[in-house]
Amino acid sequence: MEKKSNNDGLRVVLFPLPLQGCISPMLQLAKILHSKGFSITVIHTRFNAPKASSHPLFNFLQIEDGLSETEINEDPTSNVMSLLAQINRNAESPFLDCLQKLLLQSQERITCLIDDCGWLFTQSVSESLNLPRMVLCTFKATFLNAYPIIPLLRTKGYLPVSDSEAEDSVLEFPPLQKRDLLRVVGEDEEELGPFLRVTVETTMRSSGLIFMSCEELEKDSLSIANEIFKVPIFAVGPFHGYFSASSSSLFAQDETCVPWLDNQEDKSVIYVSLGSVVNISESEFLEIAYGLNNSKQPFLWVVRPGLVRGAEWIELLTEELVNSLGEKGKIVKWAPQQDVLAHRAIGGFLTHNGWNSTLESICEGVPMICLPGGWDQMLNSRFVSDIWKVGIHLEGRIDRNEIEKAVKMLMVESEGETIRERMNVLKDEIARSVKHGGSSSRSIETLANHILSL
Ligand SMILES: O=c1ccn([C@@H]2O[C@H](COP(=O)(O)OP(=O)(O)O[C@H]3O[C@H](CO)[C@@H](O)[C@H](O)[C@H]3O)[C@@H](O)[C@H]2O)c(=O)[nH]1
Fold first, then answer.
1. pLDDT at residue 41, as a whole number
2. pTM above the 0.95 mark?
3. Of the residues 27, 34, 164, 237, which has the maximum number of CB atoms within 10 A of its CB?
4. What is the pLDDT of residues 333-349, one digit of tens each?
């Protein structure tokens, strides 16, 4: 992307949520804005701090988040809702102090704050400092649009869902099915309801809403977002091909993945990863292991420490199973995912459908097997399987036979070939959006002008 310097002397302050899936798009946005000539300061929490050394062109300022060493060691991301509540309570005053100092000391004009829609206090803070605030949504616009109605779904009588109506659509929230609902609204509404309400209210008071998405994927949802939030909307993604997310990885990437893939045949390997937050039970882990093993298809499997509840890593696998798995596949703790998905040897992606993974898979034209864990992943997976038809949905069946069947169907059977063809069409459409003159590319120009006008 061409570098412009007409905005020299203007600085934008970014404040990501401390989750891998939120830090990567925020730093991608930082790179986009930097390429348009803006200087960048990133304020971040101590927990899950981004690696400043990987981004020498940006300034990084760390604030306290109030999490104790014990809490950090116990992996607070295992309960995202309670983590968000806690850091939202703890980080307000350190954030205010930090931003106040920055505004006083900066040699350049600070044009605006851009922060994640998961921060609840930043709109009030920026209003108190007279600094315009823009909001970055790191998931699909369709899901943010549903924030006002999610708390109401519980009272609509959809839950509990009987077997006979499991596949019925949720009329207020297409293309979600009733069986998806519980893992969106959760068991506990005490924290969720107020969180969603404040997010909607503060976004409506903001100076604009940015999505890591594009018109080609969700034109209607972007227009609806404009009607709901009544602020300017900018869909500026997915720019993975231009600004790799790998430099914003919080975990050490196993660099042996790519050389291992080099020795595999074209489109023969199924890549398996459930992102940075989802966790599964011991028995689910074993079902995935046997399913991959029985499929006889080469695989690259990310087992993040913390993925399996109650286990350190892969010690639950018997020596016999480890040996058998090792004949066909490779297990790593964290992969350079974008490089992996771009590799010619990858033919499919068994994914939890986090928005980043879903976009990265589409950008590389890799069809998916959907195994969503909850929240927006339930919606993304429905789009992948039911609307775009570029993947197979496991419907939550973490069962060795189902996994074996889905892997074979996607990787070797004719149905997989049809899905792959549709994926190639979608990939080309999305690629056009980020090229010069494409919808996202134009939206970046409009965003840069909007920031200048603030
Ligand atoms: O071995 C790995 C596994 C993942 N990744 C990267 O980690 C990111 C994961 O992001 P995502 O796919 O969005 O999953 P989560 O980490 O689960 O993201 C959280 O944040 C997303 C954006 O808000 C939401 O869509 C998800 O539901 C939420 O769980 C992606 O960029 C991957 O490339 C790696 O680099 N290596």
1. 98
2. yes
3. 237
4. 999 999 999 999 999 99
d(C-alpha 255, C-alpha 410), whole Å: 27
Ligand 1 pocket test: which of 20, 250, 251, 377 has the largest number of ligand atoms within 8 Å of its C-beta? Answer: 20
DSSP codes, 12-51: EEEE--SSHHHHHHHHHHHHHHHHTT-EEEEEEESTT---
* Ligand 1: centre distance to CA 20 (Å): 6
Locus of tokens 């996202």: 440
Q: Which residues approach ligand 1 with their CB closer than 6 A? A: 19-22, 24, 138-139, 245, 249, 273, 275-278, 302, 334-335, 337-338, 354-357, 360, 375-377
Q: How far apart are CA 422 and CA 417, in angstroms?
A: 9
How many angstroms separate the CA atoms of 65 and 85, rounded?
11
Complex ipTM, two decimals?
Answer: 1.00
* For residues 256-282, average pLDDT: 97
The pLDDT value given to residue 6: 57
Name the residue with the closest Cα to ligand 1, atom 19.
Answer: 21
Q: What percent of the chain has pLDDT over 70?
A: 98
CA distance 38 to 33: 6
Domains of the chain by range and CATH?
Answer: 10-153+189-247+436-453 (3.40.50.2000), 252-431 (3.40.50.2000)
d(CA 21, ligand 1 centre) in Å: 4
* Of 401, 345, 342, 402, the residue nearest 371 (C-alpha): 402
Please state the atom number of ligand 1 nearest to the C-alpha of residue 332: 1
376 vs 372: CA distance, rounded Å: 9
Whose Cα sits closest to atom 24 in ligand 1?
A: 354
